[in-house]
Amino acid sequence: MSSRNKRRAAAASALLLAGIALAGCAEDSTDGESQTAGGTSPGEGKAGCEQLTEFGDLSDREVNVYTSIIAPEDQAHKDSYKLFEECTGATVNYEGSKEFEAQLVVRVRSGNAPDIAYIPQPGLLKTLVEQTDKVVPAPDSVSANVDEFFGEDWKSYGTVADTFYAAPLGANVKSFVWYSPGMFEENGWTVPETWDDMMALSEDIAASGVKPWCAGIESGEATGWVVTDWLEDAVLRDAGPDVYDQWVNHEIAFDDPAIAEALDRVGSVLKDENMVNGGIGDVKSIATTPFQEGGLPIVEGDCAMHRQASFYAANWDPETTTVAEDGDVFAFYLPTTNEDFGKPVLGGGEFVAAFSDAPEVQAFQTYLSSDVWANEKAIATTAGGWVSSNKGLDINNLVSPIDQLSASTLQDPDAVFRFDGSDQMPGAVGAGSFWSEMTSWITGASTADSLANVESSWPTS
Question: How far is CA 300 from CA 35, 63, 181, 305, 309, in A?
């Protein structure tokens, strides 16, 4: 998730947790049973409509969708709904808003909830479910699609108190290292396959007179979130997904020895003057460099590697920089440290929550959770910049090489996906002390002190 969405989601969760009394009651749930409008579906016999005909004739019905995805990214979403409208006769009304998270709370509170909302973090979904009675469990057709096309890890993030509510939608991969293929080829460097290989390569690059790494973590009120991603990736690799889950849920202390070990591993890169901050300055310059600019020295040859998510592709100037395996810049998977934990993948995404169980709403949920929609969305996204973890997505339908790499990473049978940890922690931590203490750590604070300060900030209830 972007830092902007992190702040908005944290604010929305805070409003709900403050005990806002929400008016109205949810429509009666059918506990998984599909609703039908009766009649013959317009999609009978049409390719791609097979799953939707069971909902009957939905002509003249409307589905209202509310999301944080705005122009220009919204057009591809709207275009991807055309097949659904042809199959069902229903109309999808799309509404994107920069104030989505805060306004969603207001609308639910006033009894004006949308039919569908794209929730950008599991924590906000959990809060909405627990603090309101408005979110409707997903129908069986959606559950079956998620079982078929997504891993168990993804389904768990759409589940609250053993009830499945929300299917995954889009996704992003954070476990990437950006580099210059040309620079690597010219110097005889090869993409590392293990963490040890990566550190050995870093030492070789440093010996050549080039700083191996560059980084920037400045992001306004959200300064520090970049380091939280580094740490989360390291915890997944060193301690494994089970310990990661315990840490995120505060079942072990934030400053548990396993977490301290992982942060020290991150420090072997980010706090070593020999490793950073190529083309920018010393270690402390990381804290004052905007995260959008952190990797840019790669194209100037001033640094060799930059750890950042797939969405960093948007920061390269498309007129002067080609993002491709044989282009000016590309990315490789951040290597693991322990083969026992498979292929850990840190990332984010959205989830489809419903506030109505009307047949047209259930039909749209079913469509969005299918392989059909994933491929329609890929084809509609002609400029790239979107990917899904849906295993039915044909990677060849993605136009961007980095999107293709992201999809192949998510679809890897060995992939063990975990959602961004700070997005799941209480707002006071995940969007507060975790960010600030990682900034302090970069500028000189010790691992022990920084982690202990976050631990002491964890809400007691």
Answer: 58, 49, 13, 12, 20
Whether 117 and 189 share a structural domain: no
Residue 33's SS3 state is coil
The pTM assigned to this predicted structure is 0.90
Residues 318 and 443 in one domain: yes
Residue 259 belongs to domain spanning:
176-345+421-457
Q: Domain total for the chain?
A: 2
Q: Which residues, including other chains, have CB under 8 Å from residue 59's CB and lie 6 or more apart?
A: 42, 88, 89, 90
Q: pLDDT at residue 120 above 80?
A: yes
Beta bridge partners of 119: 351
Which CATH number fits the domain that encloses residue 338? 3.40.190.10
Q: What is the pLDDT of residues 347-405, one digit of tens each?
A: 999 999 999 999 999 999 999 999 999 999 999 999 999 999 999 999 999 999 999 99
Of 219, 226, 282, which Cα lies nearest the Cα of 443?
282
Task: Read off the amino acid at residue 384.
Answer: G
What is the rounded distance in angstroms from the CA atom of residue 425 to the CA atom of residue 291?
Answer: 22
How many CA atoms does the CB half-sphere of 52 hold within 13 Å? Answer: 34
Strand partners, 344: 416
Same domain, 329 and 415: no
The answer to the question of residue 108 being in a domain is: yes
**Beta-carbon-side half-sphere exposure of residue 335 (alpha carbons within 13 Å):** 15
Find the Cα–Cα–Cα–Cα dihedral 356, 360, 363, 368, rounded to 10°: -70
Tokens of 208: 């050549």
Claim to verify: residue 314 and residue 229 sit in the same structural domain: yes
Within this chain, do residues 340 and 377 fall inside the same structural domain, yes or no? no
